């Protein structure tokens, strides 16, 4: 079922591998011309433009942008007890992991009387996006809100698209997740217009101010990603997320039932989702193909899954050895990487590039999506070669605080002057000299 790429005996270098491996295509530039008028309209006309886009794209016009407090309370009260228990557990585990990410301030004494302190300061206000397209994502509310709260963000707003079947409000499970987390501000707005409203602010239908944010995080479709690109600088962003992806590095010891199920679990997201198997075993590849035929036919979203698995972004890569397999998955730099091999932990320790690594038969990606404690907002499209997933650190900024005494400055003044002159910036040196009177020497 999966298209095969045979690299046995001829694994190219990283650049060649990136060209040879299957990958979802996401041309953000191609939709910028469609998104720019949306962003401009929201900047110029605010909420009125947002409501027009809601009617056009979401088939509903919300009564207001901000979801009333009673709607949040009602959604939580009516939440299925089993889902509430699952969300509560997800939140608790995420808090444990993200609390350990919170860096502390450090002060370094460079010389007597001269210190540099690095302060970690949270972003003041953030907008957190929970998608609402082919599926409902209360888990994305958890994954965005928990690290922001742990980081100490003082003000946050969750955005999710209005739903025609729920009177123009976001999905009740999304609202319930926000309420469970103590979030009081939720906006019924989706897509590019959500990012634009977060960046530019506006006035709600009842006259309430919808305040701008300093940063926007959370996954979404290509149009939301394009809006992030257009507004980056005015706001900070986490990443330009593309279609979800899973890579599985497996040898003959892997269970084809597990491998097939995990490939399907990601293909379920979207027809553009990428599911890639990298294996040393042609026999496993054959068994996985057979399992895919059986399991895809039985899964709820079989048409969507089948389209994703047959797409150019998915496939099976055959390699001669696990060494070659590690080279392949490092070049691919998957959002989610599973290691289903003998001595899986040792193999996982050799991987440099992945958004998250899932070790062994009992750590499927879906565990990380919900209840591992890790974050599921991860770099896609090979960006794991240089970027990390969402964490408490995403919402923190390191500020250097420089504190030098007169003597400490005097001790290094001639070095500052020498470097300033070397760069032909004499006023830089003069800014030091001026502190010590008319004499050119600080001593």
Largest sheet: 6 strands, parallel
Span between termini: 78 Å
Number of E-type strands: 16
Secondary structure category: alpha/beta
Low-confidence stretches: none
CATH class label of the largest domain: Alpha Beta
Q: How many domains?
A: 3
Please state the CA-atom Rg, rounded to the nearest Å.
26 Å
Classify the fold: give the CATH topology of the largest domain: Rossmann fold
Shape annotation: globular
Please indicate the percent range of residues in DSSP E strands (runs of 2 or more). 15-25%
CATH superfamily of the largest domain: Nitrogenase molybdenum iron protein domain
Strand order of the largest sheet: 1-13-12-11-14-15
Q: How does CATH name the architecture of the largest domain?
A: 3-Layer(aba) Sandwich
Helix-strand layout with pairing:
Layout: E1 4-6, H1 14-20, H2 28-45, H3 47-58, H4 69-77, H5 81-99, E2 106-111, E3 114-122, E4 125-129, H6 138-151, E5 155-160, H7 172-180, E6 186-188, H8 191-200, E7 202-203, E8 209-210, E9 215-217, H9 222-231, E10 236-237, E11 245-250, H10 256-267, E12 274-279, H11 282-298, H12 302-310, E13 315-318, H13 322-332, E14 336-340, H14 344-348, E15 356-359, H15 365-370, E16 396-404, H16 406-422, H17 426-433
Parallel strand pairs: 1-13, 4-5, 4-9, 5-6, 9-10, 11-12, 11-14, 12-13, 14-15
Antiparallel strand pairs: 2-3, 3-16, 7-8
Helix pairs in contact: 1-13, 2-3, 2-8, 2-9, 4-7, 5-6, 6-7, 8-9, 10-11, 10-12, 16-17
